[in-house]
Amino acid sequence: MSNSSLPPVLLLTGTNAAAWSMENVQVSLEAAGYTCHSLTYRHHDLPSGPERDAKLTGLSIADYVEDARQAIDEIGEAPVVVGHSIGGLIAQLLAAEDAIKAGVLLNSSIVNGTLPTTEEERDLGKLLISAGAFWEQAVEQDFELLVKYGFNTLSPQMQRDIHARLGSESGRVLFEFFFWMYDLHQTTFVDPDKVTCPLLFISGTEDKAVPPSTARVMAERYETAEFLVIDGACHYIQFDEQWPETAAKILDWLSRNL
């Protein structure tokens, strides 16, 4: 049952996904009385195929930020944003606009100015480069790469189930955060001095896409940020077995910071 004294929550997904990927987060927060609104970025509700690829090609992170702004307008007040992966990046951009009350960032994608700290991250960047002009097309999620970088603590069955629901993603979106130094529009630049709301960066020790060593550097940009490491959690942290314990830590942080 929702508690009217609590602020609304906007849930932001990672790349390739839709609102279904935040269902575990929604269940945890709504059980504690929060009212959740889960956003699916434009065209991410389309099934895999030529139509989805055509509509995603050329889309920017800026488009997804605009989707989030529109969702906030519809909510009618500044929400708490809980964002996974690129959703965490978007939360930082919104925080710099003073558009949110607080942000919980689950294994956030990197923002402009954050460099990789591990060989695995650099190897992932090299793989993207080897794909050619990926920023000019829609890109599918490679199962083996996901198993290595994002699903590595999940059961084989869950790995297959999640991968089956993921669709293609705008290559430009991937370019804008992986290779922010070459983005003429500097789409993922966040001025940390403009962020005044509380932020909680959550990083799984087994996240190979954005490991804790990199996530901590990103969190340290902000005076209002706290950093929490979750032992044994992968990039898709909301699907890990210990998610209920992680959710409890999020709820405790929210109770102390709202």
From TrEMBL:
<dbReference type="InterPro" id="IPR029058">
    <property type="entry name" value="AB_hydrolase_fold"/>
</dbReference>
<protein>
    <submittedName>
        <fullName>Pimeloyl-ACP methyl ester carboxylesterase</fullName>
    </submittedName>
</protein>
<feature type="domain" description="AB hydrolase-1">
    <location>
        <begin position="9"/>
        <end position="240"/>
    </location>
</feature>
<dbReference type="InterPro" id="IPR050266">
    <property type="entry name" value="AB_hydrolase_sf"/>
</dbReference>
<dbReference type="InterPro" id="IPR000073">
    <property type="entry name" value="AB_hydrolase_1"/>
</dbReference>
<dbReference type="Pfam" id="PF12697">
    <property type="entry name" value="Abhydrolase_6"/>
</dbReference>
